[in-house]
Amino acid sequence: MNKIFDYIKGDKVIWITVLFMALSSILLVYSSVVTLAYRYQDGNTFYYILKHGLFIVTGFALIFLIHKVNHRYFSRIGQLVFWVSIPLLLLTLLIGTNINAASRWLTIPVINQTFQTSDLAKLGLILFLARLLTVQAHQIKKLKKSFLPALVATGAVCALILPANFSTAAVVFMSAMMLMFMAGIPVKHLSLVIPAGIIAIILIFSTAKIAPEVFPRAETWTKRVERYLNNEKADANADYQVEQAKIAIATGGITGKGPGNSTQRNFLPHSSSDFIYAIVLEEYGLIGGLIILMFYMILLYRAVRIAQKTPYTFGAYLVLGLSFSLVFQGLINMAVNVNLLPVTGQPLPLVSMGGTSLWFTCISLGIILSVSRTVEESEETQENTNPEQSSQNKPITDVAT
To answer: Quick one: DSSP state of residue 147?
Structure first.
């Protein structure tokens, strides 16, 4: 084990947590893809496990390569990713692959692999905001210098994601607001978002009534929220996946049915992706569900520790923004599975069946570990030079210009 840690740097607890989550993912995906295998691959579950395994292996390769990069370079990369993601989001709305009245995917030429441009935009926005808030750190309380530019960037990304994917837009927006709050933007500025948000919601649904083609998912959002708030069924098909998830959870009990013994995987749509947490609760019970939740809490806790320890402002903002985004998404997925929130299309990071979203998750983890590696190197330097030097005052010199 020590020899392995000679090659990898950064927070070892995060490395171990990610490894356990990936191993759990393989077991859960193998159990939950039975229906998909019989429907599309003549019962060949090995096809999906091999594909998922390749995504995991390449994902870990991304983590390893990215954690070796000095985090300062992500300030430049983030600007590029952010500005590239804007036209890609627009292109997705215009010519993207349309499934269930939602255009969320573009196809990568040559390898013919689809990916959600919102994943790229989410990563780019967090990198962009981390740089912006760092550069404007000395003017963080000024409305026009910090909050408005950050809000415009966030609003542009969310507005382009929203028509096809409300839940992702919500995750992006919450992560951005949390990062701004942690950076020190006054609450009185952040509170301006509330009336602006109310006006935006009114405009969106008014537009959807007049021109449904602009927001084709608006009717679906409305029905889901109404059913959730009123606790009533609109029709059997609309609540089918929620009811099947409830059955899976109820039959799982405290300890679960055991690995591979799920029955609801045969009835539950998206059992290997959006509703994989229901399979966790069915096969491993409440104990297994709490363990998965614990993994995310450990990830968030270690990320906050890294942000506290790093002597660099930009690095701290990177870690906070990326970790909040991943954990928010995970908590939303789990809340949907146990019927605490209306149905969304959010996969469970590092656990749901792999795809390009898994790669973007691994890229985020690689950046977090890159900052952690810098912290370790900084601590070693302080021990060798001036052990009493405090790392609490975070300079802003870690932004590459």
So the answer is: I
Compute φ and ψ for 109, nearest 5 degrees.
-60, 160
Residue type (1 letter), 96: G
Q: Closest Cα partner for 126 from 158, 160, 89? A: 158
DSSP bridge partners of 115: 106
* Collapsed DSSP state (helix, strand, coil) of residue 362: helix
What is the reported pLDDT for 92? Answer: 86
What's the farthest any 2 CA atoms get from each other in the chain?
69
For residue 394, the model assigns a pLDDT of: 52
> Residue 395 has which token pair?
């300079």
Tell me how far apart the alpha carbons of residues 237 and 234 are, in angstroms, rounded to a whole number: 9
| Cα–Cα dist 175/190, whole Å | 13
Mean per-residue pLDDT over the chain, rounded: 85
Closest CA to 331 of 361, 300, 296, 302: 296
- pTM for the model stands at 0.88
Angle between the 74-95 and 148-161 helix axes, to the nearest 10 degrees? 40
Pairing of strands 113-116, 102-108: antiparallel
Q: How do 97-99 and 113-116 pair as beta strands?
A: unpaired
What is d(CA 379, CA 385) in angstroms, rounded to the nearest whole number? Answer: 10
Those residues with Cβ within 8 angstroms of residue 210's Cβ, 6 or more apart along the chain or in another chain: none
Given a contact cutoff of 8 angstroms between Cβ atoms, the answer to whether 353 and 106 are in contact is: no
Helix (H) or strand (E) holding 49: helix 45-67
DSSP per-residue string spanning 64-99: HHHHTS-GGGHHHHHHHHHHHHHHHHHHHHHHSEEE
Supply the pLDDT for residue 220.
63
